[in-house]
Every structure is written in structure tokens, then in C-alpha cells.
Design goal:
single chain; alpha/beta; Arc Repressor Mutant, subunit A; D-Maltodextrin-Binding Protein, domain 2; 10 helices; elongated
């Protein structure tokens, strides 16, 4: 009996997800069906691929060797399917996109309706993380990275850059006054990031040529949480323009220390793993996102 693609997909899904139950959910099958597929696969290969316990799964040496070949086979099938779809000029299939919550909510989500009308056969899966994820581990096709790139193993496409400003709500400024100097910030409630000190450098100088590093009186791990705190009158925050565009236009947030603020732009890239020709799903999403950002001046 020959090995089937269904068995290979079940095998790779179990390894990637870490359990038979998680693989069943991912592939929309039953746990018993996944378990039977693994048993058939091991029977056909006449070897043990996984050591199973009640708590964890562990790859055997044979399993490690076979996993690499299984991935190559599934990748080849996917590429063949994509080439056929490309010949029909109909991009199709699941596209997993990951971004920090502010970018997802304020840039990508408003564009979803137009994208789905343009590419109805692409199944979007939108995930948010405020930490840098491993694309392979999370089975992600595209991730949006804000700030300088550090991972040289990724391919990247520049989407643009966004200005950052110091913002506060009218209610906060009415209660606490508006700072007129950088030194005056020490007398105010400052909202910053809890997860990374690099985001707590503000684009005003504490001394010539050196940006101010704040010590937040209130901190959060998510840029969207920081925006909400600023809107709620909890202090002054450093926020990117793509997050505050509508708030600034409506007067819900007001820039402070505008004259003292130096132009500082955060680069925004779409990153992806792909050693061969990009899939049409990825290409059309990146082209669409870049065009909409430019057309609507989202940054």
C-alpha cells in the first residue's frame, strides 16, 4: 500500500501542533481519524515515527528523517496546486497573516472587505501577537513587523513608515496642564510599553542628539491598550500615526510638544519565508496592501 497525502498531512500537523487533538482541530477531522492515519503511516513504513505518552509526543530518529521528506512532498504539491491556480489567474487557498493588534485593527481589518471582494477564493486567517513570532512554528505566511528588522533569514517587503508623536486626550490635558518643555514631562503620567524598552524612547531630546528614555508610570504590552489608556485620559503616550489617524482628526487625541518632537519614522515591513517563487496568495495580498496604504495615505 502506498502512502497518501492525507496521511502525510496528518503526520506533519501532529508534529507542528504537538498533539493529535490539536492536529484534528487544525485539519477539521476527528482525533480518532488522525490517530488511525498515523498508525497506517507507521505500518506502511514499518517503523515507529513517534513515541506517544499521555503528556507529550517525541519524534524518533526515523521520524526526524521522514518529517523532512514529508514537508518537501507537501510543499511540492502546494506549489503544483498554486501553479495551476496561477494559470487560471485565480489566487486561492488559506492565507495566514500575523500582526500586532494596532496594525491589524487600524490598517488590515478596514481593508478586509475590499480584499475579499477582489479575491473571493482566498481564505484569510488573521492572528495578532504583540511579540515577534516564529513564522514556521506558527504556520504563518506573512507577518507585519514594525521597527528595525533583526531576523536575516526572512524575506521582507517595505510597506512604508509611520511617524510617531506624543499624544494625550483633551480631558487629561485639561486636568493636568499641557507640558511646554521636555523636562516638564517628568511631572506627568507617562504611558509606555512593558514588554520592550526600545519602545520607551520618545522622539524628543533629553540632551543633544539623544532621545528621551521614559520610565512609564503606567505600562502595557499592547500598543492598542496604550492607545485606549491615552483616550481614557490616563496620561501621555508615544503612538504611531497609523494608530491615531482617526483620533487626531476627531480631536480625541492631541499632540503635545510638537515643536520639540523630531521626525522619527518606524519602518513597517511584511516578512515571509519562501525560498522559491512567491505563492500568488502572498503576492496579491502584499500588492493589495501596499497599493491601499499608498492610495489611502494610511501612514
Amino acid at each position: 500500500m502506498k502512502i497518501t497525502l492525507e496521511e502525510l498531512r496528518a503526520w506533519v500537523a501532529v508534529v507542528d501542533s504537538g498533539s493529535i487533538t490539536a492536529a484534528a482541530e487544525q485539519l477539521e477531522q476527528t482525533s480518532s481519524g488522525i490517530s488511525r492515519a498515523l498508525s497506517r503511516l507507521e505500518s506502511k513504513l514499518q517503523t515507529t515515527l513517534l513515541h506517544r505518552t499521555t503528556r507529550r509526543l517525541a519524534l524518533t530518529e526515523e521520524g526526524l528523517i521522514f518529517l523532512e521528506h514529508a514537508r518537501q512532498i507537501l510543499t511540492s504539491v502546494e506549489q503544483a496546486e498554486e501553479q495551476i491556480a496561477q494559470r487560471r489567474e485565480i489566487p486561492a487557498g488559506r492565507l495566514r497573516v500575523n500582526a500586532a493588534a494596532p496594525f491589524m485593527l487600524h490598517v488590515i481589518v478596514p481593508l478586509v472587505d475590499a480584499f475579499r471582494r477582489s479575491y473571493p477564493l482566498i481564505q484569510l486567517e488573521l492572528n495578532t501577537d504583540d511579540i515577534v513570532i516564529d513564522l514556521l512554528e506558527q504556520q504563518t505566511d506573512i507577518a507585519i513587523r514594525i521597527g528595525e528588522l533583526r531576523d536575516s533569514t526572512l524575506r521582507a517587503r517595505m510597506l512604508g513608515s509611520s511617524l510617531t508623536r506624543l499624544m494625550a486626550s483633551p480631558a487629561y490635558l485639561e486636568r493636568n496642564g499641557t507640558p511646554t518643555t521636555v523636562d516638564a514631562l517628568a511631572e506627568h503620567q507617562l504611558i509606555g510599553f512593558s514588554a520592550s524598552d526600545t519602545h520607551n524612547f520618545w522622539p524628543v531630546w533629553q540632551r543633544e542628539g539623544e532621545f528621551l528614555q521614559i520610565k512609564p508610570t503606567l505600562s502595557a504590552s499592547s500598543g492598542e491598550t496604550i492607545r485606549q489608556l491615552a483616550l481614557a485620559g490616563q496620561g501621555i503616550a508615544r503612538l504611531s500615526d497609523f494608530v491615531t489617524r482617526e483620533d487626531r482628526a476627531a480631536g480625541r487625541l492631541i499632540q503635545v510638544l510638537e515643536a520639540e518632537t523630531h521626525e522619527y519614522r518606524l519602518p513597517i515591513h511584511a516578512v515571509y519565508y519562501r525560498n522559491t517563487t512567491l505563492s500568488t496568495r502572498i503576492t496579491c495580498f502584499l500588492d493589495f496592501l501596499r497599493d491601499q496604504i499608498a492610495e489611502q495615505q494610511l501612514f
